[in-house]
Prior knowledge:
With about 180 residues, the protein is an alpha/beta fold. Strands 3-2-1-6-4-7-5 form a seven-stranded parallel β-sheet, sandwiched between helices. Helix 2 (about 35-45) runs parallel beside helix 7 (about 160-180). The chain has one domain (about 20-150, about 155-180): SPOUT methyltransferase, trefoil knot domain (Alpha/beta knot). It is built from seven helices and seven strands; from the N terminus they run H-E-H-E-H-H-E-H-E-E-E-H-E-H. The model has no long low-confidence stretch (mean pLDDT about 95).
Amino acid sequence: MRKLKNSELDRLDIYQFKSASKIPLVLVLDNIRSLNNIGSVFRTADAFRIEKIYLCGITAAPPHKDIHKTALGATESVAWEYKKNTVDLIAELQKDYMCLAVEQTENTTPLNHFIPETSTKYALVFGNEVKGVSQEVVDSCQGVLEIPQFGTKHSLNIAVSAGVVVWDLWSKLQLLSKKK
């Protein structure tokens, strides 16, 4: 097998990306402290054509060299907005989106059991690297998704979590839309 050159990958340019249809999904970053994690989430959002990223609380916003280092230009393609208060944002988003925290709580829905509805738009909330999604934000969401884990550690890196959950929802939505 021959490795493909970037020119052979048939990727969109920024202008095509901005006008292309997006999957009905926004990401909410609740008090993320690592600039590298923020940049990585931007890259994941670009890869799967996410509608928008909301940066909340202490989460840094572009432009910043450490975000740019891992985003590799995705801060230019992906729509984003800073909101100081995550709970207020969730209340606003619930008008149009089902808001789901990605966290470990009582009565969570394991990600592998979650079946998204193609007629529903989703907002996924990811939390701080140490404290996770705050209890107040969890309480304001309409549900909680949990990534099943089977090792000794209790959590995944936020950028990894976002990649796993976005991929899972993207692939399920693609499959469901083909069945229609």
